[in-house]
Write a structure and sequence with these properties.
With 197 residues, the protein is an alpha+beta fold. It contains 8 helices and 5 strands.
C-alpha cells in the first residue's frame, strides 16, 4: 500500500510523533492506522525506557484550583533541562496532571508506593469475595489479580486513565512527552487539598 502525505499527517496529528517516525510506522504496519499508532506507542516506550535513568534536576511545581476554590492540587514535574521546563507543552502537561489529581484523587504515584499492609488487605478482601462466590483456587487468583489491576487504576496516578483521553493512561501521556522532548520527565510528587478534609 502506498503511504500518502495525508496518511502521515493524520497519524502525526493523532500521535504528535515526528513525520519520519509516522512514515516508518505506516510502512511497518502496511498502512494500517491502528497498528501504526501501536508501533509508535511501543517505540515511545522503548525511547522512554532508555531515558529513565537520566537525572532530572529541573522542572516546575504546578498548582490547580478547581472552580469554587474548594479543591486543588500541587504537583512537581521534573525534567532534565530548564529549557524544556519553560516550554508551553511542559507547562500544559504539568497543568493537566494537576487537574488529573484534583479530578481522580489518587493516593500514590505507582503500585510500588502502596504500603504492603494496605495491598495485602485489598488482596484478602478480593479473595474472600471470590470464595463467597464459590470460585476455585485457580480462578480466585486470577480474579484477585484482575481486581488488583482495577484498584491500581483507581489509586495510582500513573495507572489512571488520562482525563483528557481515557484510551491513554497517565503513564502513556508521560511516555509520549518523553518521546516528544527527548528528555526524561518524572512526576516527583503531588498533593491534593479539599476544603474541610
Amino acid at each position: 500500500m502506498e503511504i500518502t502525505t495525508s496518511m502521515i499527517k493524520e497519524l502525526r496529528e493523532a500521535t504528535a510523533a515526528g513525520v519520519l517516525d509516522c512514515k516508518k510506522a505506516l510502512d511497518a504496519s502496511g498502512g494500517d492506522f491502528e497498528k501504526a499508532k501501536a508501533y509508535l506507542r511501543e517505540k515511545g516506550l522503548a525511547a522512554a525506557a532508555k531515558k529513565a535513568d537520566r537525572a532530572v534536576e529541573e522542572g516546575l511545581i504546578e498548582a490547580y484550583v478547581h472552580a469554587g476554590n474548594r479543591v486543588g492540587a500541587l504537583i512537581e514535574l521534573d525534567c532534565e533541562t530548564d529549557f524544556v521546563a519553560r516550554t508551553e507543552a511542559f507547562k500544559e502537561l504539568a497543568h493537566d496532571l494537576a487537574m488529573q489529581v484534583v479530578a481522580t484523587s489518587p493516593l500514590c504515584l505507582t503500585p510500588e508506593d502502596i504500603p504492603a499492609d494496605v495491598l495485602e488487605e485489598e488482596k484478602n478482601e478480593y479473595r474472600t469475595q471470590a470464595k463467597d462466590m464459590g470460585k476455585s483456587e485457580r480462578v480466585i487468583e486470577r480474579i484477585v489479580e484482575g481486581k488488583l489491576q482495577k484498584y491500581y487504576q483507581e489509586v495510582c496516578l500513573m495507572k489512571q486513565p488520562f482525563i483528557k483521553d481515557d484510551e491513554l493512561t497517565v503513564q502513556d501521556v508521560l511516555t509520549q512527552a518523553i518521546a516528544k522532548t527527548g528528555e526524561n520527565i518524572v512526576v516527583r510528587r503531588f498533593a491534593r487539598f479539599e476544603l474541610g478534609d
